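input
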Amino acid sequence: MTEPGQTDNYSISDHINAITEHCGTGVFDYCIYDTGEIIPEFIKKYNLEGQDLVEQDVDKVKGIKFLQRNLSMVKDDFIRHDPSLVASSIIELICDDLKYQDKQNDPQFLMLNNKLREEKRINKIKKKTEKKERKIAEGKLGKHDRGLKSKSKFSTKYSDRIASIREADAKAERKKKQRTARSKDRVDADVMNKKEFEIDNKRSMKNSKKGKTQKRKTTAKRFADTKNNNVKKKSREEIRAEMLKQLENSKLNDRK
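output
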């Protein structure tokens, strides 16, 4: 916008000529001028203050490269240049110059190019957010639609293929989990079988020791019983002799 009392009715060429008269020639290589759409109500507000839009007579100026950009924004009911968009335009210009000089590997180019990409990403998100907020304010977007993302052309065109790829990935993941579960079950089964084998082995050894002890006891008992039986068993002659001896001893005692 023009400034009342300073740049009344000034066009782009008038601004450039005024600066050139004060600073000398060769000052300008480029001129970025705004072509953003401005709501008429805001222009009328400026007109009441004696201000107007700067006329874009770029054809009257020679030796300068003009860059047409959409840089305007409205902040607190005033028309302003968006500083982020202005910075992005300047960075893009410098990067183009460095590309022309074949300096894509120059640290300055790499730094500015990364900055430019980040600015574009942020501005894109910012525009989507503002658009969504306007729709919500106008009642064009329901509550259930507020969390939904708009689909890109790529997503719309290849939605079936994307869904198929995702389904295949999910199926592969399920199979992987099943294989892992089966492998874990086999390991657990092997561990359980090993434990059961150890328990059975211990039980068997214990029973074996117990059986050996019992067998030794049984053998000893049999031996003792056999010995006793051998002692107790006497022939008829031995029994008769013992009885006769006892009888004789009793007769001798009677005589005495």
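quick obs: The first helix runs from residue 12 to 23.
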